[in-house]
Give the backbone structure.
Amino acid sequence: MIQKSMDDETNASAIKEKTISLVVPAFNEEASIPLFIEAFMLARQKWAFDSHVIIVDDGSSDGSLALLRKYATEYECVHYIAFSRNFGKEAALSAGIDHATGHGVVLMDVDLQHPLSTIPKFVEVWHDQGVDIVYGVRDEVNQETALKRWTSRQFYRFFNKMAHTRLPEGGGDFRLLDKRVVEVLKRLPERNRFMKGLYAWVGFRTQALTYEQPARVAGDTRFNYWKLWNFALDGIVSFSTWPLRVWSYIGVGVALLSFLYAGYIVLRTLIFGADVPGYASLAAGVMFLGGMQLMSIGIIGEYLGRLFIETKDRPLYIVAESKVPDNEN
Ligand code: UDP
Ligand code: MG
């Protein structure tokens, strides 16, 4: 009994010495930022561990940056990185990860859809169970439309069928990463950052934790279906070469079929003589094959385009200004 309470104490004191960096991307979020900062300043007082936040302004065109400058001068624990233009959420997460100094790094949205009250639970699992990644899984009762939920489920299913990397369904960006995972992520050289895939790809001991996701505090989602489609395409093309390879099999299949068909035509001509009609099957065949060839070239293009971007070796993002935590450890 005494032993147990002593263990608890050592545990608690160890947690006290931990620092958690919150990495929060924000794109045109002037309405959410003040609410987020207010909620964070309140919440962190109650946390057993030390914490700071790095908000990454992803090239906002509203008053977000002015707000961040103000809060960063006002509060020591508020940091920010401002991009020179919109580079996308994945780049913003990467920038935050690059500059985070905490023992653990929590990635979360600024719209308070990722509740601050979940963070101590993440920290507890990370600290007590020695897990390297704790990721949040949305409770089913959330505000997303049925169509969005359905498309998201189909994406996970499709992705997991095609790629060797397994994506846990419902696991988003909201998660805690141990420092050693952060170090590995920092070293990954690719420009095409499909973070959900990268977290899974790096491995490590991982644990899920469900949380309830409320509606956005202010504004609307920054992701429309077109953006999401491109995002899904990025994910699949970055983690699977199956779309490239499948054409060899389709090619073999079509070649076999046409071989059989040719045999049939030769036989039929030998038996019944030549007949001119056959325009419809000819046209259908040509169009079908033409369509398939265009599609396969398009898919090669998807990969080639990304290869092109990777070889240019441009930076992932450009920082226009920042106030980041000192790297003392
Ligand atoms: N975001 C970003 N860059 C973008 C789009 C979004 O940094 O190009 C940020 C946004 O400000 C928010 C987070 O990513 O903090 C999630 O965006 P949102 O809430 O619109 O997505 P949803 O919750 O609908 O998936
Ligand atoms: Mg949101």
Remarks:
- Residues 25-27, 29, 58, 86, 88-89, 92, 109-111, 113, 216, 221-223 surround uridine-5'-diphosphate (ligand 1) (CB under 6 Å).
- The two ends are 36 Å apart (CA to CA).
- The first strand starts at residue 19 and ends at 26.
- The first helix runs from residue 2 to 16.
